[in-house]
Amino acid sequence: MSRISISRRRFLHATALGAATLSAPAVLRAQGAAVKVGILHPVSGALSYSGQQGRIGALLAVEEINAAGGIKALGGAKIDAVLGDAQSTPEGGNAEVEKMNAANVAAIVGGYASAICLAASQTAARYDLPYVVDVGVVDAIVTRGLKNTFRFGPGFGVIAKTALESLAAINDAAGKPAKTAMIVHEDSAFGAGLAKLLNAQLPDKGFQVLETISHPTPTRDFNNVALKIKAQNPDLVIPANYYNEYVLLARTLLQQKIRPKGIYSVLGGAASSYKFVKEFPEAAQYIMDCNHWFDPKNAKALELKKKVEAKGEFYTYEVYMNYSCVLLLADALERAGSAERAKIIAALESSTFAGHVMPYGPTKFVNGQNQGAAPVNTQVIDKDIKVILPAKFASAKAVFPMPS
């Protein structure tokens, strides 16, 4: 199979290639004994930017694996990427899983949004179809007992715990200037579930939650939210939302001259995004985030960053998480020595994947959750994104409170 270009300008072309894979005559698809892998993301609709970024990472890994000789345990079989667009809805994700199953894919990678991952992995389970979740953080994804589902990244239970421990440490080191907080979250399974955890745990860390504000995705105007924040004047604003809404909220706070002691995100949709920093540097400055991130001291991670940026794209967490998930699946295929679904599931259950570009420990799945997965804390400092915690991965010290 020829390489698939990942240029954003050719996404429609790439999607057509995926459709062609679904409809091509069996004799043509059998050439080269390729292993078909479903690559599922929301590349249209409200979550399209994140979905497109995830697809970039997945296809980079496919290119890399195929260029290195394919799956050696299968005689050098190439990975044939079958592309699917979840259209930013659970229903769209389900429809693509049905198509991919009919096309006899060996496994599926992706999903991005929690709601899509919840639905798509459940549908895949009906066919004993291995499903590797890239980002979806709702813990129900891996607590339902689905034997086919494996989440590479951490869930929001782990992320919230890490985020609040880090926030308390940062606040303590600064002399405890922050005592109150307001939470602004999107209202799907991701944002609502995270807000519930934060409300339960923030008081134990010494923070009073003044108000929790939810909003739908998409939201086009945050002026009323900003007015509520200005009226209550919290020390901290804690956003949990997707990219477009995060950017709009941050810009609205800047425009209305609302300057809390800190904007501290938990899984902020834009806070750890070079695109946000480049396009709106003043709004992004000093924002902190607890999120998925790459290891800034890992040579392979930095090499991948250069490769992505050389193509004119931003190196976002969706890219390297999906890149890693495809490498994880390739490792399972090598150890399984088979493209049979049951054998792939068994190989994932006993995963030994270690080709990390992220600050993770050894990959070990327990009930479908990677025990080595962990978030880090970042902060936007001088038009760059720095890791501030944990210390062994840090490239800068936290600036807190934010300078006025």
Describe this structure in words.
This protein has 404 residues and is an alpha/beta fold. It is built from 15 helices and 14 strands. The protein has helices at 11-23, 26-29, 48-67, 90-102, 114-125, 140-143, 156-173, 189-201, 223-232, 243-255, 274-279, 281-284, 299-310, 317-336, 341-349; strands at 35-41, 79-85, 107-110, 131-133, 149-151, 180-186, 208-215, 236-240, 262-266, 288-291, 365-366, 369-370, 376-381, 384-389. The strands form 3 sheets. The protein has a 7-stranded mixed beta sheet with strand order 7-6-8-9-10-13-14, sandwiched between helices. Strands 2-1-3-4-5 form a 5-stranded parallel beta sheet, with helices on both faces. A hairpin with a 2-residue loop joins strand 11 (365-366) and strand 12. It is globular.
Instruction: Give the number of DSSP strands.
Output: 14
Largest sheet: 7 strands, mixed
Based on secondary structure, the structural category is alpha/beta
CA gyration radius, whole angstroms: 21 Å
Rough outline: globular
Query: Strands across the major sheet, in which order?
Result: 7-6-8-9-10-13-14
Number of helical segments with 4 or more residues: 15
> What is the terminal-to-terminal distance?
56 Å
Order of helices and strands: HHEHEHEHEHEHEHEHEHEHHEHHHEEEE
- Amount of helix: 40-55%
Mean pLDDT: 92
% residues in beta strands: 15-25%
Detail the poorly predicted runs.
1-31
List keywords for this structure.
alpha/beta, 14 strands, about 400 residues
Describe the SSE topology:
Blueprint: H1 11-23, H2 26-29, E1 35-41, H3 48-67, E2 79-85, H4 90-102, E3 107-110, H5 114-125, E4 131-133, H6 140-143, E5 149-151, H7 156-173, E6 180-186, H8 189-201, E7 208-215, H9 223-232, E8 236-240, H10 243-255, E9 262-266, H11 274-279, H12 281-284, E10 288-291, H13 299-310, H14 317-336, H15 341-349, E11 365-366, E12 369-370, E13 376-381, E14 384-389
Parallel strand pairs: 1-2, 1-3, 3-4, 4-5, 6-7, 6-8, 8-9, 9-10
Antiparallel strand pairs: 10-13, 11-12, 13-14
Helix pairs in contact: 3-14, 4-5, 7-8, 14-15
